[in-house]
Amino acid sequence: MKQEDIIARSKAIEIIGEIHRCSEGENSKFYCLPVKIIFDNGEEKEYLLKAHGEPKTLYDFIENKKGLKDKMEKSFVLLKNGEILYGSYLAR
């Protein structure tokens, strides 16, 4: 992925569902939380946040423990091809 592939950065995340065990194939080892990610270009995309093994991290996100939700809200990128990546490690 190249910097020019990024068309938007996340600015907010809204929770739109409940934590549940993912049920499809490879995802069945994860707990999922349906969210809507709002990007700085105005686009809104539904996305599943995932936690491996147990849902604790997702509960921490909901409760914003250690500022987790605040950090993650600004950490996703939207690519030209429509893919959403967790990009906190990407240079801004």
Short account of what is shown:
By secondary structure, the protein is α+β, with helices and mostly antiparallel strands. Helix content is 15%, strand content 41%. The longest helix has 8 residues.
Query: How many individual β-strands?
Result: 6
Q: Report the portion of residues in β strands.
A: 35-45%
Net shape:
globular
User: What share of residues is helical?
Assistant: 10-25%
What is the ordering of alpha helices and beta strands? Answer: EEEEHHEE
Distance between the termini: 14 Å
Global structural class:
alpha+beta
Describe the protein's architecture and organization.
The protein has 92 residues and is of the alpha+beta class. It is 15% helix and 41% strand. The protein contains two helices and six strands; from the N terminus they run E-E-E-E-H-H-E-E. The protein has helices at residues 56-63, 68-73, and strands spanning 6-15, 20-21, 30-39, 44-52, 76-79, 84-86. Strands 1, 2, 3, 4, 5 and 6 form a six-stranded antiparallel sheet that branches. Strand 3 and strand 4 (44-52) form a beta hairpin. The mean pLDDT is 90.
Name a few traits of the molecule.
92 residues; alpha+beta; 6-stranded antiparallel β-sheet; 2 helices; 6 strands; 15% helix
Write the layout of secondary structure elements.
Blueprint: E1 6-15, E2 20-21, E3 30-39, E4 44-52, H1 56-63, H2 68-73, E5 76-79, E6 84-86
